[in-house]
Design brief:
The complex is a heterodimer of chains A (252) and B (474). With 252 residues, chain A is of the alpha/beta class. In chain A, 49% of the residues lie in helices and 10% in strands. In chain A, helix 5 (81-94) runs antiparallel to helix 6 (102-111). The mean pLDDT of chain B is 95. Chain B contains 22 helices and 13 strands. Classes of the chains: A alpha/beta (252), B alpha/beta (474). Chains A and B meet through helix 1, helix 2, helix 3, helix 4 and helix 9 of A and helix 1, helix 2, helix 15, helix 18 and helix 19 of B.
């Protein structure tokens, strides 16, 4: 029996990118994990936290802990670096003075992993053994909230080292795509300028597939690319791997 | 989602419309970030140096009074005179008085953020003291009646043509775009000023408590000339600039310029211990150190203490994607960029600057390049929290957040909201995307297409995924 994993699918992935959730489940199963989906989950509280509504963020955090804190799995895996960062770094800080939840928040933080880091650090997956699944050129966008979870080198290597991949490194990879949650809605002009730069950089690589491991970044960049008629396909690492491993029903 | 059009929105719109300005700022910032990578890679223990610099700052700011007292004692022991300025106006008045008491009429100034903060030039002019900027960038800013737009490279927003025109107009020299000739014009003009000046004004990069040493870091030699040639030297020093020991200085000098321009060290690093002694060949007759509080003490005692660790290297500005697109002037502050988004509302009226902490995607690149590891995104979130707690969030935005938090509070409500949102975005939809949302939501599709909730969410798909897994297990 492999590792038992609870999927924290996140509100954005659940709503806008359900195929990513499916891909995560299938890749984890492929590597021997027993995957559950705790039905009580909604949001980790990140939007509330980032925007300064910390009482509300703490309330969301408690609901998150209630939804996940049971004994029949070892790990929590999520396809989002920013939600992982919220659970790992900010929830324990928000609930530090909460007699009932402080310790449980630490336990949840310890067992929560972003999808790519879980494959690398817990399952010790050898990415060079996974086929790229596409002969088209591929680039990788580094999502800002992976900072503190995964280095740029470590994260991009999970794509660049796949077997037979035509990998195109992205210039100015450390620059933000312009998403930033409410930031994009409050300052659409600045956000758009950042997104335009990102799409230009992606187009300049000549890649036809861009791997983006964060739903927010993904639809920001893809939405901008669509408006500019830049035809690049956007995929989460989980989708790329699932396709390489022949696990998807709608294989491209 | 913005309830009113603010001065900040206006500034932002102005720069966003100026493609060439954005290109210049973007290219310059990127090349400095790349130089930083090269320069820091050459120091094998650079990350440990950053740790050490962080620890020294943390310790010093925690024990600020202790080190300030020692610094003051040592400056006095070296023959310097120490003044205290609680506010910007106090600092300006103090320096004007020093000028009046000594009959000083012509000042040369080394680039110093504290003097920008207090608006010293205007105050001295009003007191009958003529001030000349001697840093080439600041000299051009002054000549063109402009404002600096970066804390280290003040004319990052200016091109050769605007500089050439300013020199032609103000100095009466022939128009040229050759940087060397332009620099020579400035040098010739300033040489005469240096001959006649009687007051030298500088900031302080580091004040060493152990020895009373004042350290200033410049690249053009103007710093040394401005602090040795005039009869009187006045240094306007933020109280947070004190460091404990002379050996600590070596840590900061190693990280300061590498973090910004990528230079191993600034071209001129001047260490000054008091006024001219009898055995010295040159130096000022008097050294005055004006210690500037101007809100720093309050910051030191509050939840934003970490921002006082800043050594003004400018790396966060170079890294910041927002700064690259809106430029320094948009912040309407002496301190632009990520550091300014935190410092400006703390040093000034937070209501007036309420947009600054919000205008960030919290990407965290600034934190990655900060030599003293200031967690700027964390401080921005704290400022947002103060706004939310203090009801300083516009009502429409607050309402939108309330609705969002409610929609995400239970799986049932979330599911229902997803359906509502899918059908609410059906007008103008092409499949799972919408490029023309109606009404007030139109803003969301002004620049980019926006996704619609999927027809089947992951929660809908989970049932069959779970069954599939059960079959595989058997």
């Amino acid at each position: 029996m492999g590792k038992s994993v609870a999927l924290f699918v996140t509100c954005l992935t659940d709503t806008f990118a359900p195929r990513v959730g499916v891909a995560v489940v299938r890749v984890l199963r492929h590597f021997g994990c027993d995957v559950r989906f705790p039905e009580g989950q909604t949001c980790c509280g990140q939007p509330a936290y980032n925007n300064g509504f910390h009482r509300e963020a703490a309330a969301q955090g408690r609901r998150m802990i209630d939804a996940f804190d049971f004994a029949d799995y070892e790990h929590v895996v999520t396809p989002s670096g920013s939600c992982a960062a919220m659970v790992k770094h900010h929830l324990p800080e928000l609930l530090a003075d909460d007699a009932e939840y402080a310790e449980r928040s630490w336990r949840l933080a310890e067992r929560t992993y972003e999808f790519g880091t879980f494959l690398a650090d817990v399952l010790h997956v050898d990415f060079t053994q996974i086929p790229a699944g596409t002969s088209r050129p591929v680039t990788y966008h580094y999502s800002c909230h992976l900072r503190g979870i995964q280095t740029i080198e470590g994260a991009s290597a999970q794509v660049s080292r796949l077997a037979g991949i035509d990998y195109r490194p992205l210039a100015q990879i450390e620059q933000c795509c312009g998403f930033g949650g409410a930031f994009g809605a409050v300052f659409p002009g600045i956000s758009n300028a950042m997104s335009q730069d990102k799409v230009t950089a992606i187009a300049a690589t000549g890649a036809e597939v861009a791997v983006v491991n964060e739903a927010g970044c993904s639809f920001t960049i893809e939405g901008t690319a669509r408006r500019r008629s830049v035809s690049v396909q956007f995929k989460h690492l989980a989708e790329l791997l699932a396709e390489g491993l022949g696990l998807m029903d709608d294989q491209p | 989602m913005k309830c009113s059009h603010t001065w900040f929105d206006e500034n932002v719109a102005r720069t966003l419309a100026d493609e060439s300005l954005r290109a210049v700022i973007g290219q310059t910032s990127q090349s400095k970030i790349e130089s930083r990578v090269v320069a820091t890679a050459k120091v094998p223990n650079f990350e440990q140096l950053r740790d050490l610099a962080t620890q020294i700052k943390q310790h010093t700011i925690e024990h600020l009074d202790h080190y300030l007292e020692r610094f003051i004692e040592q400056v006095r022991a070296n023959g310097g005179i120490v003044h205290f300025a609680a506010t910007a106006a106090d600092a300006n008045a103090c320096i004007a008085r020093i000028a009046q008491d000594n009959g000083l009429k012509l000042a040369v100034k080394v680039k110093a953020m504290t003097t920008e903060e207090t608006g010293l030039n205007a105050a001295l002019a009003a007191a009958g003291v003529q001030v000349f900027e001697t840093d080439l960038g600041e000299f051009i800013v002054q000549l063109d009646n402009d404002r600096p737009s970066h804390i280290v490279t003040p004319i990052i927003h200016k091109n050769r043509q605007t500089i050439a025109r300013a020199m032609q107009r103000e100095l009466g020299v022939p128009y040229t775009e050759d940087p060397e000739t332009l620099t020579r014009y400035a040098r010739e003009h300033l040489r005469d000023v240096f001959r006649r000046c009687d007051l030298g004004i500088s900031g302080v990069n580091f004040g060493v408590a152990e020895t009373g040493t004042i350290c200033i870091c410049t690249n053009e030699g103007n710093g040394r000339l401005s602090t040795t040639r005039p009869r009187v030297h006045v240094a306007l020093m933020g109280i947070e600039k004190v460091i404990p020991r002379l050996v600590d200085l070596s840590v900061f000098l190693k990280v300061l310029s590498r973090s910004n321009t990528g230079q191993p060290i600034t071209v001129y690093t001047s260490l000054m211990n008091g006024p001219r002694r009898e055995s010295d060949p040159d130096g000022p007759e008097q050294l005055h150190v004006v210690l500037l509080d101007n809100g720093r003490r309050a910051i030191q005692q509050g939840r934003y203490r970490e921002i006082l660790h800043c050594i003004r290297c400018g790396a966060c500005l170079n890294a910041c994607p927002v700064y690259r697109h809106i430029g320094g002037h948009a912040y309407d502050s002496v301190y632009p960029g990520p550091i300014g988004k935190v410092l400006t509302p703390l040093l000034n009226d937070p209501k007036h600057y309420a947009d600054l902490p919000q205008a960030s995607s919290l990407c965290g690149f600034c934190r990655d390049v900060c030599p003293v590891r200031i967690d700027i995104p964390d401080l921005l979130v704290r400022l947002r929290r103060d706004q939310a707690d203090g009801k300083a969030v516009p009502w429409l935005r607050r309402l939108a957040f309330r609705a969002l938090f409610w929609a995400l509070s239970t799986p049932r409500l979330m599911r229902w909201s997803q359906r509502v949102l899918r059908w609410g975005t059906v007008v103008g939809a092409k499949g799972d995307w919408n490029s023309r949302l109606p009404g007030p939501a139109a803003q969301l599709t002004r620049h980019r297409d926006t996704p619609r909730p999927a027809a089947k969410t992951f929660r809908d798909l989970w049932q069959s995924e779970r069954d599939r897994g059960d079959q595989t297990d058997q």
